[in-house]
Amino acid sequence: MPPAKKRTRSYDSAKIRAAVLAQFGNVREAVSALTPEQLDGPTRLGEWTVRDLAAHMTMVLGSVVRKLSEPEPATLELALLDWPSATATAAATIDEDTRAIDTGDLPGLYARTVERFEEAIAGAADERLVPTRFGTMRLGDHLVTRTLELVVHTDDLNAATGLDVPYDRQALAACTRLLADALAAKAPGGAVEVRVPPFAVVQCVEGPRHTRGTPPNVVETDPLTWIRLATGRTGWAEELDAARVSASGERADLAALLPVMG
Question: Over the chain, what is the mean pLDDT?
Answer without folding.
Answer: 94
